[in-house]
Amino acid sequence: MENSFVISYLPGQHLIQKLNGTTKLLLLVSSLSLIMISFDIRILIPTFALNIIFLISVKPKWRQIRGITYFIVFMNLFNILLMYLVSPTIGVSEIGHSDVWFSIIGRYVVTPETLFYLSVRLLKIFSMFIASLWFVLSITPSELGVGLYRLHVPYKICTVVSLGLRSIPDISRNYREIKNSLQMRGLELDKKRVSVFKRLKQSVTILIPLLLSTFERVDVIASAMDLRLYGIGKKRSYYSYKKPTRNDQFFRLIVIIQLIVFAIYLVVVVFLRPAGAGRVWYPW
Amino acid sequence: MLIEKKESYSKKLLGSWDTKTVVSVAIGAALFGVLLDFVSIPVFTNTKLSVAYLIPVFVGALFGPLPAGLVGLFGNIFADLLAGSGFWPDWWIGNFIASFVIGLLPLYGARIKDGIFNVKHATIFTITTIIGLLISFGFISPFLNTVFYGGEKAINFAQGWIAVVSDGIVAVVAGLPLLYALTRRYKKNSNLTKE
């Protein structure tokens, strides 16, 4: 199960991995907000390219991300197909005018607007996927905690994030042990032999010991933290804090550019858009 | 007297943020993430029956709505970080609201830690849970998904409603026995009566 985690718990050696936690976080937030708000391929294609460059610069192992990439690509192609089947003229209603090429059967007509709209949607999802992938591959739990703290998030929330992420391998090991021991006592987990509701009941059977054994540790951890005077001061310092370097300055410049584009898009397209005009930029 | 009651309401809503709450929310969110990613039963394409929704019930019963809501929020973020399958803020927000509403237990007088949980509380819990899931996954998440990623409305809403049904089943059918079991466990420690 640990092998199927994509997140790494070790600091990496590549440029983006060595950045300050706050910079990574800001870079992710600005990229994601740009990807989510814009339906304009003039913005989406550069953002997609930028995130691809980030991902390649982390030098991911193909074996590590192969499974999830296939899954995402398959899932979203399926989703696009489903979107077309449910409303074949979705692009027409989003863009505003229609120009039918040919019709397949009944109401299933092929219009360039729909194809364009569906590919914009696909581009948005893949950009978001790529952005999340480089972030996941380059962040460690404590860096995420420091990064959030430097953005003035209350430090108790930062502790929730870093402590939670850090305890996930322990929990999944516990889960495996409990599952194995219950299977030894005769719990049938074979997908083909038991019905869905029986399997739901069985996963509750696994969950109860997992819940108890995990929350038993809460007292131990909380006491240890209390003994080290956690929560006494209003501020907190971190061992894993890295001072921003020249590289950070460069990446923060990218962040600022992205946020400026975001703000301009927000004002021009989202707020000042005339009523009835589509939010999708369409060249023809 | 009145002011005191008001203060206690805001405190019930926010929960008391001592070290134990911090650690519980962290561990709860981690558990939520692991359960969401690995311990789920595929029912239908793209829809899974996950027992993760028992965690907000548990944390809400012991610590109140805001800790429960944060368990839902960070749990879903952890699940996305672990799997690397992209970030879906629409579902983060939906999970936050749903877990927050599920965790409203102390507000209507169900004090699990003092062994107080009866049929009336169980009924209110069932109703609020279903309403919370309807608001969050039935409306807010699909709406945000349409705004953020431009999906087809009907499909998004269908996915949302399937999530409402599956999470509702888990939270109510498996959650109520959990709440009763917890109440029994705490009742043993608190058989003292107040005079």
TrEMBL record, chain A:
Its main location: membrane. It comes from the Bacteria. The chain crosses the membrane at residues 25-56, 68-86, 115-137, 250-272. It is found in: Membrane. It is a multi-pass membrane protein. The keyword Heme does not apply. The keyword Transmembrane helix applies. Keywords: Membrane, Transmembrane, Transmembrane helix. One of its GO terms (cellular component) is plasma membrane. This is ABC transporter permease. It comes from Lentilactobacillus diolivorans DSM 14421.
UniProtKB/TrEMBL annotation, chain B:
The chain crosses the membrane at residues 22-44, 51-79, 91-110, 122-140, 160-182. InterPro entries: ECF_substrate-spec-like (IPR009825). Gene3D superfamilies: 1.10.1760.20. The keyword Cell wall biogenesis/degradation does not apply. Keywords: Membrane, Transmembrane, Transmembrane helix. GO terms for cellular component: membrane. It comes from the Bacteria. Pfam families: ECF-ribofla_trS. PANTHER family: UPF0397 PROTEIN BC_2624-RELATED, UPF0397 PROTEIN SPR0429. This is Uncharacterized protein. It comes from Lentilactobacillus diolivorans DSM 14421.
